[in-house]
Design a protein that fits this description.
Elements lengths: L5 E2 L1 H10 L6 E7 L2 E8 L5 H9 L9 E11 L2 E9 L5 H4 L1 H12 L6 H15 L3 E4 L6 E4 L8 H11 L5 E7 L4 E6 L18 E11 L2 E11 L7 H21 L4 E7 L7 H8 L24 E2 L8 E2 L1
Helix pairs in contact: 5-7
Length: 320
């Protein structure tokens, strides 16, 4: 149920006269379901200098009211006014000059970001701080700046990659340290192919380098396989974007600086995919050397009766 408040004739007339600018503040009270003139103040100084001395002294901690406060600025309709609804359960600090200025500032600012927008904003800030990596491009030691997201390798990670290139170890697991903006070594424990699935975390992304030892067509081979494991949407947007962005720069550095030839690059979301058969088929995909000859489709059976062989003139026609 709504309460309809009636404006008294006295207040209506006073509001009409106040439009000319002779009044700074008007207090409107509620009395017997009517809006009545409670008090008013005429301007003495600028609007911001008058604000707190005029407004705060008229507030009653036992009675709600409305305040109309005139600014010095004007628009096409005349002077601009602030409308304030005061209730005793409010704090005067909310409607004092400083509170009003905070309110104006918040209204003029951008709309609040969603959680996804906040994540993207943090990623952009992180990308802006990441150092650019330079790589040698000629014997004259000229350098070219690689544009993009590239976290530097930690010393233990560099040492592990050197050992992998020398085939002294067969497995490396790396992680991003977002706070330090580096790529760190998790571990380089000896790993058999059948143990590879257990090395993949279920709740966080990782980079893996694995020396895949196997036989193919009678030859013994040792192939370096890169595995990027990303366990679906259990990871934050920030993690997914950072790992995806850093991946290509990491591989470029590994192949150029550590002379590691990556035989296969894989992206998985579950370690259970890494079976013996899966690795073999990825490293040695089946080649289809011969294409199947085009076979003319057979006609629908039983709809055209028996086929007939048509002979030349004078010869008999036989059923087939």
């Amino acid at each position: 149920m709504f309460l309809a408040l009636v404006v008294t004739p006295e207040l209506r007339d006073f509001l009409a006269r106040a439009r000319g600018g002779a009044v700074r503040l008007i207090k409107v009270r509620i009395q017997d379901e009517q809006l009545v003139l409670g008090a008013y103040r005429e301007p003495e100084r600028s609007w911001d200098q008058d604000y707190d001395p005029f407004l705060l002294t008229l507030l009653d901690d036992q009675e709600p009211c409305y305040i109309l406060y005139r600014l010095d600025s004007q628009n096409a309709l005349g002077y601009e006014w602030i409308f304030i609804s005061w209730s005793p359960d409010q704090s005067p600090e909310d409607i004092c000059l400083l509170g009003y200025q905070r309110h104006v500032s918040s209204c003029s600012g951008p709309a609040p970001l969603t959680l996804a927008e906040q994540e993207l904003q943090r990623i952009k800030i992180t990308e802006g701080r990441v150092k650019q990596v330079k790589t040698e491009i000629s014997v004259e030691s000229k350098h070219q700046t690689l544009q993009g997201l590239a976290f530097p390798l930690q010393e233990t990670a560099k040492k592990a990659l050197q050992q992998l290139a020398q085939k002294r170890i067969n497995y490396i697991q790396l992680r991003l340290d977002v706070e330090k903006e580096t790529i760190e070594l998790v571990h380089s424990n000896p790993t058999e192919t059948r143990e590879l699935a257990r090395r993949v975390p279920k709740d966080t992304p990782r980079y893996h380098f694995f020396l895949y030892k196997h036989s193919h067509e009678g030859d013994y081979l040792e192939s370096v396989v890169f595995i990027y494991s990303m366990p679906g949407y259990s990871c934050s947007i920030k993690e997914r974007m950072l790992y995806s962005s850093c991946k290509s720069r990491l591989l470029e550095e590994v192949e150029k600086d550590y002379h590691l030839e990556i035989s296969k690059k894989l992206e998985i979301d579950d370690g259970d995919e890494l079976t013996e058969d899966f690795l073999y088929e990825e490293v040695h995909p089946k080649q289809h050397a011969h294409k199947q000859a085009f076979a003319k489709p057979r006609g629908p059976a039983g709809k055209r009766g028996h086929k007939r062989l048509i002979k030349g003139p004078g010869e008999k026609v036989q059923d087939s």
